[in-house]
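Feature request disguised as a bug: please show the residue count (544) next to Murein biosynthesis integral membrane protein MurJ in the output. Example input:
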Amino acid sequence: MSSLGRASAIIGAGTMVSRVTGLLRSIVLVGVIGSYKSGPADAFTFANQLPNSVFSLISVGILTAVIVPQIVKAAADADGGNAFISKLFTLGTVVLVVITGIATAAAPWLVHLAAGKASPDILALATALAYWCLPQILFYGLYALLGEALNARRIFGPFTWAPVINNVVSIIGFLILGAVFAPVSTNAAEWTPAMINTLGGTATLGIALQAVVLLVFWRRTGLALKPDFRWRGVGLGAVGRLAGWTFLMAFASLAAGMLQGFIISEAAGAGASATVTANAWLIFMLPYSVIVLSIGTPYFTQISEHAAAGRHQEVRADIARSIRTLLFFIVAAVAAVAASAIPASRVFSKATEDVSAASAAEAAALVLLCYLVSLIPLTILFIVQRTFYAYDDTRTPFWFTIFQCVLIVATTLAAWGLLEADVIPITSLAAAVALGQSIASILQTVVATWLLHRKIGGLQVGSWMLTIGRFAVAGIPAGFAGWGVYLLAGGADGWMVAGQFLGALGTAVIGLVVVGVYIGILALMRAPELTVAGALVRRFLPGR
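Example output, currently without the count:
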């Protein structure tokens, strides 16, 4: 367990710094080009999300599902997996170059698919920025390939620390944009080629450096990575068969995401749209990244090793232990984020000519809360889905992901129908789409857990539910305590929403109160998970 604790601490620390600098990056960008009712902000979000979406699908689906288990197995080869990994990287790079070239050439069509209901000036700006942003697919892919290979060799740190470089470069570039072209217009039609080149070039340069820095750490693997086009005879066919299902899954998820963006684009420049949704997702992903990825990634490597060795009882124990440990932290995070939703959203909100910063923060907070509904189920799904991958089963995740995609499409179309019927205003469209996604994720988790139980049995689901109940007894009053602090500070008229920095400070204060009450209640209940959680937290302390 100590090795898992050390790995979790390394990943958690790197992820924390990465996410904090990522938050600073977004704060600076909002300060320069705005978010709520900002045409250029929505245009950049549409353009920059295209490569981000591809990276997310590659990293979470294809690479995690296929690469990690296969590299773990290849480590048993006589050469330590050197030949396999070199051939795999060569093939992956070739595929990435081809995909990147096709995507960049198709930029106008991709932008239309992602944001076709936006105004013509926003679409034109998004297309110009997309030509800069789409080459990120290559660099994101290389970063994911290198990072997952390092993780599979139990070198966990670089993959989580590398994004810090991207964030620093982006912050510098955004500040230059704001300084040189001040005041930066929030009207998409007024943007010049120089402004477009500065913003787009900055975004792509940061991603490129993020990938390159991982090569510095490659020597720690003890492998000699080199181009090798001899792809026959080393098992790449098996990888291809496994990846086939995840490619289909990736396509389905991409299609569902595109539909969401297409519908939300109707609100671009008129309310909460792509940028507000992206910032709400960023806040939502902060606890998921810091907690679930830092603790869950080492568990996934261990589950893969136990599954490859046929030690199924240990796999079941890993699943139950990892989920209980993750939920201890995630329930506290849900309570803290829910209580501080408005101050946290104020960090990413800026006043416009007709909307105050507080009103913009409240609109963004609604989107955040709609996403937050699914954080606990997605935590369980992280472990459940990766257990299928550990058993080289990518077909079953494909089917329950298709199920989720169908639900996302249905709920997104329902949200659009409610808008067209004047049941909801255009300012609530993004929140309705976010809520639909959460409902789809909850149902997906239920189905996935049932299918895994059928596959390996004995998932100890009862212990999960008992754990969730125990944590809820502590989390609900902790959340109300945090909300009380917000109200005592003046609520929407108080200091916590008076500025971006004060919003961040208010979020921290509320979070500390929530965590303190949560731990205090669990301590009174003598919850056994406190011991495990305490051991993990101590790994982050200096000297540990």
